[in-house]
From TrEMBL:
Residues 1-32 form the signal peptide. InterPro entries: DUF459, SGNH_hydro_sf. It comes from Agrobacterium albertimagni AOL15. GO terms for molecular function: hydrolase activity, acting on ester bonds. Residues 70-86 have a biased composition (Polar residues). This is Uncharacterized protein.
Amino acid sequence: MTSPRGTFARLMTLGLALAVVATAFISTSAQAQQPERRRNLLDMLFGERQPTYVPPQNVQRPRETKTRKNTSGSVTTINTRPQSTRAVAAPPPPPKLDNAKTVLVLGDFVASSLGDGLKTAFEDSPGVVVENRANGSSGLVRDDFYDWPGQLPALVSDVKPSVVVIQIGANDRQQLVTPTGRLDFRTDPWFAAYGDRVARLASVAAETRVPVIWVGLPAFRPQNMTADALRLNTIYRSSIEKVNGEFVDIWEGFVDQEGRFIVTGSDINGQPVRLRGNDGIGFTGPGKRKLAFYVEKSVRRYLGDMTSPDLVRLDASNLPELVTLSPSENKAIVTTPPIDLFDPELDGADELLGGTVPASSTFPTPRDQLVQNGRLPDPPVGRVDYVKRAGEVAPTTSSAPASATP
């Protein structure tokens, strides 16, 4: 017969064996998911108490979905991942009319940016064509490179514009050569000689009998260049106004409230955008459009109705279809002669309203009583301003109870 002590020892041995087998099984299954590490005695007997977390690698991110429950009770799963959107091509601008009016833009690189902005401004106007003939490196100082007073009459004769827009001077901050010698920039002789050249160009433009708009220079990032632009704008304004031309000042559009140069400012819609290039001299797309914004109003005034984007030329191809009736249907038509709206017989009378003065009434009107007696007639009984006189009996109604009388 086995003693109790021997039975207890065998049970303990069996328990330890089962613990070792279970520990080996758990370790084998966890080995496939976790990196192998050194085990101690407690791990072999009781297993790992706190397994180490290993983040998954190269796991594809599930697609984001959103569940929405319909009113009928069914559930609909909607994919919320942003899908690639393709830019929708803008419709092409309408073709220009054969009799469209032309805007001729002349000047330097600033005028070239202005011409691009005017093209954008009148892109949807079939009655307006912008001809940009600016020369980016030109000016009024180096007339040996490009002579604007000599070239302007030929350009006007070739383009036949309705309006001439001039913007020049950004390249003229340099030494000026005259028959008497060289003149240094920022000296009084230089400004006097330069003013003569500006006046000559303005006179040549006025002789073409075409409206002339002279656009001033904007501010630039170099401070000395901005100061020079202010001085040159005074010369441009005085010269063009002497020949009855128009000067357009764009200075406020490219400086802040304190008059300092800005790179970022408001566009024509009031939104903050970048207006100038990295060099602080050139213009971005919104900057070109803002240049044109100041000139656009004056150009539209000279061109008139041709600037309307809804202008359509009617010809045989787009006339509305005329409906014609057959001869049998024409016989059934009853024509009505035209009726004068002021015909007194329309209302069955012989005279228009107010044609005769009604006979004066025997009772004077309240106005007559006020004029003659100096007082208005007594108000009718029952009105709020009526005052009962002494000895007068107030009217009573049969429907009111006797107890209601005060």
